[in-house]
Amino acid sequence: MRPKMIFFASLLTAFLISGNIFSQGFPGGDRGRNEMRDRDQIKKKLNLSDEQVDKIEALQLSHRKEMINLKANVELKEVELDELKGTINFSRDAYLNKVKEIIAVKDKIAIEQANHKMDIYQLLDDNQKKEWNKMSRMMHDRKHQMMRKMRDKDFN
User: Fold this and answer.
1) What's this model's pTM, rounded to 2 decimal places?
2) For the segment 61-112, what is each residue's pLDDT rounded down to a tens digit?
C-alpha cells in the first residue's frame, strides 16, 4: 500500500509542476504572435491601404537585413576590442580607435533606424500621420514609464 501512495503522490506532484511550467509558456514563444497582433492593430488604426502595407513590409524586410549586418559588425568590433585588451601592452590610441569604430557603427544603426521610420512616415497621408504621431508618443511614454519602474525596482 505504501509504495502505491508514494507513486501517486510523486505522480500528482509531477503533474502539478508540469502544469505550472506549461501555463507560463516558453521564453519568446509568444513573441511572433504578439508582433503580428501589434502589426494588425497598427494597420487597422492607421487604416493602411494594401499598397501601403506591401511597401512597408518591403521596407521592413530590407531594414531588418541591414540591422542584422550592422549589429553583427558591432559584435565583431567588440570582439576585436576584447582581443586588443587581451594583449599585454596596448596603446591608448589603439584602444580609443577601436572604441570609436564601435561608436561609429552604433551611430550608423541610429541613423538607419531614423531613416527607416521616415521612409514609412512618408508613405502615410495626413490623417495617418496624425495617428502615427499619437501612437509614437504613447509608445515613447510607455517605454520611459517601464524604464522608470525598472530603475526604481533596482534601487529598492
Assistant:
1) 0.66
2) 999 999 999 999 999 999 999 999 999 899 999 999 999 999 999 999 999 9
- HEC-encoded secondary structure of the chain: CHHHHHHHHHHHHHHHHHHHHHHCCCCCCCHHHHHHHHHHHHHHHHCCCHHHHHHHHHHHHHHHHHHHHHHHHHHHHHHHHHHHHCCCCCCHHHHHHHHHHHHHHHHHHHHHHHHHHHHHHCCCCHHHHHHHHHHHHHHHHHHHHHHHHHHHHHHC
Grid cell digits, residue 138: 504613447
* Domain spans of the chain, in order of start: 1-46
Q: How far apart are CA 41 and CA 92, in angstroms?
A: 51
Lookup result for grid cell 553583427: 72
User: Of the candidates 65, 75, 72, which has an alpha carbon nearest to the alpha carbon of residue 112?
Assistant: 65
Instruction: Quote the cell numbers at residue 79.
Output: 570582439
φ/ψ region of 91 (left if φ > 0, alpha if ψ in -120 to 50, else beta) reads beta
pLDDT of 30-71, one tens digit each?
Answer: 555 666 666 778 888 888 999 999 999 999 999 999 999 999
Residue with cell 510607455: 142
